[in-house]
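User: Teach me something about this protein's shape.
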Amino acid sequence: MAEILARRGHQVDVFTYHLGRGVTSPGFSIYRIPPVPSYNKEDPGPSYRKLFHLDPLLARMILRDTRGAGYDVIHAHHFEGLIAALPSAWRHKLPVVFDVHTLLESELPSYPMGLPQGFKQAAGRLLDTWFPKRSDHVICVSDEIRAGLLKKTRLSADRFSTIPNGVEDLFFSSDRQKPKKLNGQPPQLVYAGNLATYQRIDLLLEAFAEARRSRPDLRLQILTDTAFDRYEARAAALGVREQIDISNPGFDQLPRLLAEATVVANPRIECAGLPQKLVNYMAAGCPIVSFSGSARHIRNGDSGLIVDDGDVSAFSTAILRLLSDRDLALALGNNAQSYARSRLSWSYAARQIEAVYAAVVTA
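Assistant: First, the predicted structure itself:
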């Protein structure tokens, strides 16, 4: 988002944590909090150390560096971005656009924080109600999030917009003009993303194990920067650990590996937002199997195969169907890619974001 807005002529400065990898010629400036050598957690979700150490450091940096800098608007990414942005917004009277990617009421309970599930759900519901009211405008990545926040906050509908995440251009480079032949190579079921519990890797492993009963040559390729430790025992118990390949290919190699996938999997069952892996799959022209709870922008039988949430047998059957019907797999991938190119590019998103900025700056 920052890169495409910079390309469109805006001055964009990104304020973030000390963690992260280098960005080549992004066209925008990146400012990081001082190094915190004892903190290297890159997994999604909150932690007490982040909330009470890193977030205050980030808020202090933003407060200091936005003073007199001539900024027009703060774009706060997700809830912790808003936490860090609010002191500066209040002190320097800057409008804030709050970019929401999930509902905390549904997602917060999935993180191990040493608290009862009911407490985390109640806290998430309270934060979903409180945070949007602190901003000037709320961007939601899905209509489901927008509807949920409208109901909880009772704010005016014109305070909300639905703007899906974009996808980087390099994912559109895959070539699927001809049906992919296996040519004697083992078919590859691919999952790309983090391995947090809400991703339901447990269901993916069960579906993979079931599919292998009909296709013993099928392999599962997991592309991630997250350790597989928590799933080792389950994969071994299902008898499929030796058929799973795990690697961290890096972002530049990901589009190629997705384009080479025989089938890709989206096993998440609860998601009010838009899984980034799904738009990457679509842009790469992949044949997708997804549970319905996270199948944003997918039309069953047209741009992917959708099965009922948690129905492992149906998920396995859909995988096998795409392995055997390569013409269908090609058609689904091409349709998904066409939709992503027209509706899920960052250029498309940037035009809508600019309209939000113009509205809050002139209000």
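Now, about its shape. The radius of gyration is 21 Å. The longest helix spans residues 48-65. If you'd like, I can walk through any region in more detail.
User: That's plenty for now, thanks!
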